[in-house]
Amino acid sequence: MSGTLYVCATPIGNLEDITFRVINCLKSVDIIAAEDTRNSIKLLNHFDIHTPMTAYHEFNKYDKAKALVSDMLNGKNVAIITDAGTPCISDPGEELVRQAAEAGITITSLPGPAAAITALTISALSTRRFAFEAFLPTEKADKKERARILEELRTETRTMILYEAPHKLKATLKDLAKTLGDDRRISLCRELTKKHEEAVRTTIGEAVARYENEEPRGEYVLVIEGRDPSDIAAEVVANWNDMPLEEHMEHYLKQGFTEKDAMKAVAKDRGVSKRDIYNKLKT
Question: Which of 50, 117, 211, 225 has its CA 20 to 30 A from that of 133?
């Protein structure tokens, strides 16, 4: 019989956050696939775990996943862990899970810490609907893709969660201010679950000013307020009103609308009555 793949969440800071189930799993499997074995050995030593480890990371994930899938097809049980938190969340573990699933291997997740959710719960922003963006593309790597994603975030109504490294925080905050506006609420969370945990609840503009005089330290999770849907609706109306009325009508007529239905659609777009549209077109 094939083995099982165990997706094991590990602490993001405080070692006491590991679950008994994860400890027992890591002790019982045949192999632990770790993002950085040098980092994970500290965790294993702390909990007296002596299971063999193998390096599984962004630069070997395709070939190593094939090898691990082969091991599992031959009956071995494999646990995957990341440096901190839950594997597969902005993490190369998703490739191993994908290949294991395609091979018909049983996969189970052992839940635990995740930086995105931890930050969201202390952000004091809406938690009902949220969008996880992870790390933005760097300007150096892909300036156009970064701009495209920022533009998408401009109209996002859900609470947004981003990760950022300390040496890139200032540039990211400035880009967010330019795209989302200075007044948008944001929670900057760092050192999560550790002794010096901090959640700075402020606005993007105030955050930019703060870090002009303060050097960012530690890995950050940025939780950002979503846009008010009514603002988007007003913006859409404004865009339609900037279009010449005849061109607006032609937009719907080309789609097969009758003149009457086109007037009705135009009136709705512009937030006026159909009679107003009729009068303007016929005068």
Answer: 211
